[in-house]
Every structure is written in structure tokens, then in C-alpha cells.
Specification:
alpha+beta, GIY-YIG endonuclease, three-stranded antiparallel sheet, two-stranded antiparallel ribbon, 5 helices, 35% helix
Length: 121
């Protein structure tokens, strides 16, 4: 099922229409980047497609992903529980930059934006 996502930014009172976003619940740890070998952001969510789209739309202009233009989903790892995903996120964040690059290169050697891959039925 897809939903046309509309959000109202709580401070700016602007309405944003995101477009079609998969409503599937995908619990995942993910890494966003601004370009190959660039700035990395690691996060965890229960709704991967929706969360990545929020990063891409830069709704919070002061967020890390907006400030550093991290709009490419370059890595994700699906989990069965949010508790498990949070533990893995902390593990990835505690690791070195080199370890994060190895994760990305293993899953996505071309550093493609994987958003379209996750935004399907």
C-alpha cells in the first residue's frame, strides 16, 4: 500500500507533499551520505521509506542530514525488532569510519541511492 505523505512542519507551519511512499513497516538501521566517501549519518527507524524521505526533503533545516546534505541512502540493514535495531545502530555508531565504509562497500559498492529499492510493495 502506498500513501501520499503530507506533513506540517511544527515550527514553520508549512505543508509539504512528499509523494508516494511505501507504508510497509521496515525496521532498519541505515546510513545516509552526501556523496561517495563523504559525510555519513547513521540512524534507526521502524518505517524506513518514510524516514529516508524526511531526510531527503530536509524538513528540519537544522538537522545533521540537512546541514550536510546527506540525502542518499547508501546502506540499510533490516531487523525484526526495534530493540535489536537500536543495539545494532549503537554498535555501528561506536565503530570507526572505516568500518562504516566497509559496510557500505559490501552492500552497495557503486554507492547508489537505495531509496527506490526500499520504496516498493
Amino acid at each position: 500500500m502506498y500513501l501520499v505523505c503530507v506533513a506540517v512542519h511544527h515550527r514553520l507551519r508549512h505543508t509539504y507533499v512528499f509523494g508516494s511512499v511505501s507504508m510497509r513497516k521496515i525496521i532498519a538501521v541505515y546510513i545516509m551520505a552526501n556523496y561517495r566517501n563523504g559525510t555519513l549519518y547513521t540512524g534507526v527507524t521502524a518505517h524506513l521509506a518514510q524516514r529516508v524521505l524526511i531526510h531527503k526533503m530536509k524538513l528540519n533545516k537544522k538537522s545533521f542530514t540537512a546541514l550536510y546534505q546527506c540525502t542518499m541512502l547508501v546502506f540499510y540493514e533490516v531487523h525484526t525488532s526495534i530493540k535489536q535495531a537500536i543495539i545494532r545502530e549503537k554498535n555501528i555508531k561506536a565503530g570507526s569510519r572505516q568500518e562504516k565504509l566497509v559496510l557500505i562497500e559490501t552492500m552497495n559498492p557503486a554507492w547508489r541511492d537505495l531509496f527506490d529499492e526500499i520504496n516498493v510493495f
